[in-house]
Amino acid sequence: MSIHDRLNSLGITLPHAAAPVASYQPVVVDGHTAFVSGQLPFVDGDLVTGKLGDGVSLEKGQQAARACGLMIMAQLEAAGLIERVAHFVKLGGFVACTPDFYDQPKVINGASDLMYEVFGDPGKHARSAVGVPALPLNAAVEVDAIVALKA
């Protein structure tokens, strides 16, 4: 089953790939590896902002991380690479949060679980989940990816 067919069967529609907000490329390919720049969480067209532990719930953070995962896929689609995904190597998750918030891994599960849901075993990956004091545009979450590509 193609990834497009899998997305359709899951009822998932990818968002439009977001334009960069600074001086970088959304996706860079080196050999058979795609590096996807950090993606921000747009839910129903709105950026999820704020901090976990200060007004943003764990559930909203997980939804935001899932939205970042959808944007990673949208960037791969825009680059013509989504059907070439061999497997996800690593996701890097960044959570804007208060110093006493410790559930960053649970937040980033929103993106990790999505990759497994869509790609199956090739969606399993290594990962980091880091708490930070602030993210670009006051985003609550940011996720980047390293993806191995089929020849």
Measured by DSSP, the beta-strand proportion falls in 25-35%
Shape: globular
Helicity, as a percent range: 25-40%
**Total count of helical runs of at least 4 residues:** 3
The computed structural class is alpha/beta
Strand count = 9
Largest sheet report? 5 strands, mixed
Order of helices and strands: HEEEEEEHEHEE
How much is the radius of gyration in Å? 14 Å
pLDDT averaged residue by residue: 97
Which key phrases capture this entry?
151 residues; alpha/beta; 5-stranded mixed β-sheet; two-stranded antiparallel ribbon; 3 helices; 9 strands
Topology of this protein?
Blueprint: H1 3-10, E1 27-30, E2 33-39, E3 42-43, E4 46-47, E5 51-52, E6 55-56, H2 58-78, E7 85-96, H3 104-119, E8 126-132, E9 141-149
Parallel strand pairs: 5-6, 7-8
Antiparallel strand pairs: 1-2, 2-9, 3-4, 7-9
Helix pairs in contact: 2-3
Give a verbal description of the structure:
By secondary structure, the chain is α/β, with parallel strands linked by helices. The chain is 30% helix and 31% strand. The protein contains three helices and nine strands; from the N terminus they run H-E-E-E-E-E-E-H-E-H-E-E. The strands form three sheets. It has a five-stranded mixed sheet with strand order 1-2-9-7-8. It has a two-stranded antiparallel ribbon with strand order 3-4. Strands 5-6 form a two-stranded parallel ribbon. Strand 3 and strand 4 (46-47) form a beta hairpin. It is globular. The mean pLDDT is 97.
Care to give the gist of this entry?
The chain is α/β, with parallel strands linked by helices and 151 residues long. The protein is 30% helix and 31% strand. The chain is built from three helices and nine strands, in the order H-E-E-E-E-E-E-H-E-H-E-E.
